């Protein structure tokens, strides 16, 4: 049987290690060139397949592909674009099939989160419904850590490390100034409906930092919150507040909802930190500073977790290996064997059980008062942030990050309007 080509695409918000997964996919495909002739990367994710903008990764040197492992963000471009059901948007699926046929693509590796798993699952059904064999494997990625079945998601460990370290460092700053100046520091983190990243900020309590954490899993109670903060300041002289962007009131309204939605239908969040800081100032009168980690937390490759980098690469590698075993409509997963010492191996999950399922923080990971984390949560988190995987730095003091040539293959089909 002649070798087929593979299509790889990155989706959704990028991470410090998503390119490590790309590296794992491409390097593994190159080792099996008798079965996979080439890897075409979608320019700007799945949109690249629809518009037939396919990057020829064969034009990239082995050294440049290897450098992806140490490079943040999405080297081939990403997008927030959700394919509807086959019944609702047959036109887009027919276009995918035409592009795959035109370029002899038999493998589809989609690197993303929950919505991407859904898209990958739908594409995996093309073989049955539209008569063209495509093996679709989802490569997990999300800083939110909210994909089910897998112990954790590539991207999360590095964000958790960045937030834990940044919260600790900023808290030291506030502590030094608290006697005569700032007594409150508020840091807003990503996470949407799941409080995993916020939990990482709460790790600073192990370093004698008074911290109050606001999780999406716990309804926000303003009076209770202000009392908790006031008590911390009276006892310690200052307080750090970690607030998830997904923190919300009992009626479901987000503290930071902007009133707009992205292409996936998700509420656009951001701005919880100044809202919370203002509450503290108005009710308690304490001087504050606040920060929104935003892109900084998910782009911080200079402080990536060693285990996160290793797992991101391993899952990309496993995706290819499982495809070559004949697997379809699955996602390789991280299976934790033990926390001390930290040991794990690669498993797999059917996409039918992954698509559109969010994994929240278990309540046993949140302290009884709702503002901290338990020992069980710490046992889960610490192995994921342990170890450093520093990039090389150039003579000017900046990290050496790779940029792809992005050479496009020739189009064979008429243009397609999205």
In a nutshell, what does this entry contain?
With 418 residues, this protein is an alpha/beta fold.
List keywords for this structure.
418 residues; alpha/beta; Rossmann fold; 2 domains; five-stranded mixed β-sheet; four-stranded parallel β-sheet; 13 helices
What percent strand? 15-25%
Helix content: 25-40%
- Count of DSSP strands: 11
Give the C-alpha Rg: 22 Å
**Which spans have pLDDT < 50 for at least 5 consecutive residues?**
none
Total number of domains: 2
CATH domain fold name of the largest domain: Rossmann fold
Which CATH class of the largest domain? Alpha Beta
What's the architecture of the largest domain, going by CATH? 3-Layer(aba) Sandwich
Distance between the termini: 35 Å
Biggest sheet: strand arrangement: 3-2-1-4-5
The average pLDDT is 94
- Give me the strand/helix succession: EHEHEHHEHHEHEHEHEHEHHEEH
Largest sheet: 5 strands, mixed
Described by the principal axes of the CA atoms, the overall outline is elongated
Which structural class fits the helix and strand makeup?
alpha/beta
Number of H- or I-type helical stretches: 13
């Amino acid at each position: 049987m002649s070798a087929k080509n593979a299509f790889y695409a990155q989706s959704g918000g990028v991470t410090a290690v998503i390119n490590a997964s790309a590296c794992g996919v491409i390097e593994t495909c190159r080792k099996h060139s008798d079965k996979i002739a080439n890897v075409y990367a979608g320019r700007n994710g799945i949109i690249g397949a629809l518009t037939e903008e396919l990057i020829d990764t064969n034009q990239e040197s082995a050294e440049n592909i290897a450098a992806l492992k140490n490079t943040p963000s999405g080297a081939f471009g990403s997008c927030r674009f959700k394919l509807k059901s086959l019944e609702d948007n047959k036109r887009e699926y027919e276009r995918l099939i035409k592009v795959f046929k035109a370029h002899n693509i038999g493998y589809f590796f989609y690197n993303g989160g929950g919505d991407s798993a859904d898209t990958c699952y739908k594409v995996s059904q093309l073989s049955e419904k539209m008569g063209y064999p495509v093996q679709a494997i989802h490569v997990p990625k999300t800083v939110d850590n909210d994909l089910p079945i897998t112990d954790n998601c590539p991207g999360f460990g590095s964000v958790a490390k960045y937030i834990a370290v940044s919260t600790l460092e900023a808290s030291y700053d506030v502590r030094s100034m608290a006697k005569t100046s700032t007594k409150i520091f508020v840091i807003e983190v990503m996470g949407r409906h799941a409080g995993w990243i916020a939990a990482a900020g709460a790790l600073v309590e192990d370093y004698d930092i008074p911290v109050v954490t606001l999780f999406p899993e716990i309804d926000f109670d303003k009076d209770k919150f202000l009392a908790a903060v006031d008590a911390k300041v009276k006892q310690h002289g200052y307080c750090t507040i970690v607030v998830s962007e997904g923190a919300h009131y009992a009626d479901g309204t987000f503290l930071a909802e902007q009133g707009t939605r992205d292409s996936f239908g998700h509420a656009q969040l951001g701005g919880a930190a100044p809202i919370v800081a203002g509450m503290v100032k108005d009710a308690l009168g304490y001087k504050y500073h606040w920060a929104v980690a935003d892109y900084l937390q998910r782009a911080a490759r200079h402080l990536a977790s060693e285990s996160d980098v290793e797992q991101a690469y391993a899952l990309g590698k496993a995706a290819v290996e499982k495809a070559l075993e004949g697997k379809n409509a699955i996602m390789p997963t991280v299976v934790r064997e033990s926390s001390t010492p930290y040991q794990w191996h690669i498993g797999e999950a059917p996409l039918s059980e992954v698509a559109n399922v969010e994994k929240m923080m278990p309540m046993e990971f949140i302290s009884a008062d709702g503002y901290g984390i338990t020992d069980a949560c710490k046992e889960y988190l610490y192995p994921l942030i342990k170890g450093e995987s520093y990039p090389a730095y150039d003579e000017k003091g900046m990290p050496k990050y790779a940029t792809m040539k992005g050479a496009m293959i020739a189009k064979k089909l008429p243009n397609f309007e999205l």
